[in-house]
Amino acid sequence: PRGLLEFRMLQGTAVQEKSMQNLPPGLTSLAFPRHVALGSEWQWLPPSLTKYQHSGLAIISDAPKHELMAKAQSENTIRFIAHVLEIPRSLTYLTMTLSEYANTTQTIALLPPGLTYLQLKLYGALTSEAIHSLPRSITSLVVRSRDCWQEIMAEAWPPRLTELTISHKATDPAKANPLNLPRTLQSLWLGEHVVLDDAFLDALPTGLQKMSLANATSLKTPEKVVRLPRNVTSLALFNLPPSFSDLCIAHLPNGLTALLLNGPISISDACAQNLPRTLTDLTIDSSTTLLTHVGLAALPPSLLYLGLWYTAFSLSVASALPPTPV
User: How confident is the prediction along the chain (326 residues), in pLDDT tens digits per residue?
Assistant: First the structure.
């Protein structure tokens, strides 16, 4: 249909040039699966496009991959930058993967200047220079890198950044570098290899409202838990340690409305009594859920959603669930 505004291709490995030439002229959103290869077809993207999703946008070339591997890094960098310049300048939303041959800072500097959302996968390490090269208009950023980031200075981040997802695959804690987060952040998701030491927890932005920690194994004591930002209203903690106790729950931020707890923790009736009374959404993903009808009756009365892992769930237990608030 010529009036189509959004198009998502679910399967495939290539897009013919003729197909790109015939895209609806007013298209604003376009998404391709990871393995689709685009070459010179970039020039046919409609100028009206504001949202483009393609996580496999790494090597844009007609040459086989083994030939690219044999080329000089500088040549591949120039070729990749040439394609970056072909990305419509009208884009505000973009997902892409940087080639391992690309000069990260140089390539990022040539992204559309009006981007507000960027999802970026890197083969190398994230640097302060690369962050500083990002469009200053970005408000939401997702970065996944293969190596640990280098030290990121707080002033390098886009000044309007409010949402950040960041992770890396390096498993050596000794390689971890300071990650000075911007004070403007309201939402933060940290990957599993981020080390949550005391200094890092104390430096988290105080204005955070939503936070997800993929590796919460260090939250072993109430003294650790109390270091979490106190203004958070939505909190997800994955891979909690077995020592995460009833007392730890009592030291969670008081104003929480959404909470997810995941890990080999024991959830007892005392835990239910210590939960923030403001909760409306609660998920407990633990293989040891020991809540009885007493604990369920003690859950926050404001709950609208409850997700529990139970090996056995009886009608007598179900009858103790809090009533839906009026």
Answer: 899 999 988 876 666 666 777 889 899 998 877 666 555 556 777 888 899 887 655 543 334 444 444 443 444 433 344 466 677 888 999 888 776 666 788 888 888 899 999 998 887 778 889 899 999 999 999 998 877 677 788 889 999 999 999 887 665 655 555 678 899 999 999 987 777 888 888 889 989 999 999 989 989 999 999 999 999 999 999 999 999 988 899 999 999 999 999 998 888 888 888 999 999 999 988 866 677 788 888 889 899 998 887 555 555 566 666 666 54
Whether pTM > 0.85 for this model: the answer is: no
CA distance 311 to 300: 23
